[in-house]
Amino acid sequence: MKALKGTYDLLPGEVEKWQYLEDRLRRIFRLYGYSEIRTPIIEELALFKRSVGESTDIVQKEMYSFSDRGEREICLRPEATASVVRAYLEANLAAKEKLSRLFYFGPMFRAEKPQKGRNRQFHQAGVEVIGAKSEFLDAEVIGLLADVLTGLGIVKHRIKLNSLGCRDDREKYCRELRAAVEQRRDRFCEDCRRRADANVLRILDCKNGECRREMEKLPVIGESICPGCRDYRDKVLRLLDAGGIRYELDPLLVRGLDYYTSVVFEVTSPDLGAQDALGAGGRYDNLVEELGGTAAGAAGFALGLERLILAMDERGVWNDPISGFERFRKDAGLDVFLVKAGTGGGEIVSKLLSEARAAGIAIQTDFDPQSSFKAQMRQANKLGVKLVGILGEDEIREDTISLKNMASGEQRKIPRREFAAAINKELSSPTC
Ligand code: HAM
User: What is the C-alpha separation between 192 and 207, in angstroms, rounded?
Assistant: First the structure.
């Protein structure tokens, strides 16, 4: 049996990178005062049809949906914004706080063609700020995104930004777009022709080379928004300028999900190849109302964690002392390996292990009686422990234990009852 296509296992050795990444992200989210939310992986299919949009690629082609035993239409979430808004409404968070600043981590599912940086089960970290429309909040989430990337050492990235305008702008633009497409309808692929009738904006997501060439002749959304939306976008831009956040205006940027309005953005990395979007987001001021709540402004973004890891691999972040990854990995791993030479002393080992663990020390031993002293030391080295406790025949006889600092090579004998205290002291010393 093998893992399903487009899914993968994260094994020890690799998983530490993910733990490090999540740890760093949590720290940055905390700096901005965001709180974590966890929503279910399965949701009603209708939630995504209504929010992401019936005619989007995600809903049309990429959903993992099924009928459950009660004949309910369920799907594995393809993204989390809709779920967060659903949870926000269900818990009536609006009554509890003026503004909800939320973050999340988790797996998402899209039945796309797998390739580098594109998986069927992938992971996102995202933030959503729900409850107001204010240019300060757009600037806040974009600033947070830039901080995340710089903080992770992904210094080479590009933030592209556009405004999709308000509902009226969208309707006007869709009319113009439809008229323009109609004029050269036969040059577009079958999918696009269908999109022209169902949801013309989605033509702009088409990857077909012929269609893309035709698109260059179509009107551009970012250039046809109303003065109010233009003014709002410019206020956001001024705040980004004041915060020293670098971005590029891209009037062609449209997002593949229907809920967006006003300012949208995408961040790409030159290190990633074809799937170069590290993350994306924007404002979605109509979604709260569309899902049954009182109208409330909202904005957010999500980052693809697989792609962040790829970009960090490319940047050599893991070996860079500034990243602190080596320290993180050491701290997340074992502190001590207990080596037992000779036969006997099994009860002493058991007692030492439980005393150490009770004192918060991560410790392990090889219980194999055939394992030689040399083999056990090799194992300790491989595990990258900071200290080795050695219980030889002398130590057993003398009620002592030897403690070896693996970094300095220093070894000393201590009374056995001081084992846990001595380790904790040594672990907090700079030589460890
Ligand atoms: P999205 O653009 O669909 O937006 O996805 C955000 C990020 O998730 C992408 O930029 C990419 O890094 C990653 N991603 C998407 N699909 C895949 C895949 N098949 N394999 C690997 N990574 C992938 C959203 O999901 C919105 N909910 C973002 C948002 C939050 N907007 C407002 N708030």
Answer: 10
What is the full DSSP assignment across 31-94?
A: HTT-EE----SEEEHHHHIIIIITTSHHHHH--EEEE-TT--EEEE-S-SHHHHHHHHHHTTHH
What's the rounded Cα separation, in Å, for the pair 360 and 101? 34
Residue among 79, 110, 152, 286 to mutate when testing ligand 1 (max atoms within 8 A of CB): 79
Sign of CA pseudo-dihedral 396, 399, 401, 402: negative
223's torsion region: left (phi>0), alpha (psi -120 to 50) or beta?
alpha
Q: Does residue 306's CB lie within 6 angstroms of at least one atom of ligand 1?
A: yes
- Is residue 224 classed exposed, middle or buried when 0-12, 13-18 and 19+ CB atoms within 10 A define those classes? middle
From residue 17, alpha-carbon distances to 24, 89, 219, 230 in Å are: 11, 35, 44, 41
Strand partners, 403: 389, 412
pLDDT at 432 over 80: no
How big is the chain by its Cα radius of gyration, in Å?
A: 28
- Ligand 1 centre and the CA of 298: distance in Å? 17
Residue pLDDT, tens place only, 173-182: 999 999 999 9
Query: How far is Cα 221 from Cα 189, in angstroms, rounded to an integer?
Result: 21
Pocket flag, ligand 1, residue 112 (CB < 6 Å): yes
Q: Are strands 277-283 and 261-268 parallel, antiparallel or unpaired?
A: antiparallel
- Contact 119 CB / ligand 1 (< 6 Å): yes
Cα–Cα nearest to 174, from 191, 160, 195? 195
Q: Ligand 1 centre and the CA of 345: distance in Å? A: 56
Q: How far apart are CA 58 and CA 49, in angstroms?
A: 9
* Cα–Cα distance, 283 to 265 (Å, whole number): 9
The region of weakest confidence among 104-108, 157-161, 251-255 is 251-255
CA–CA dist 166, 373 (Å, integer): 72
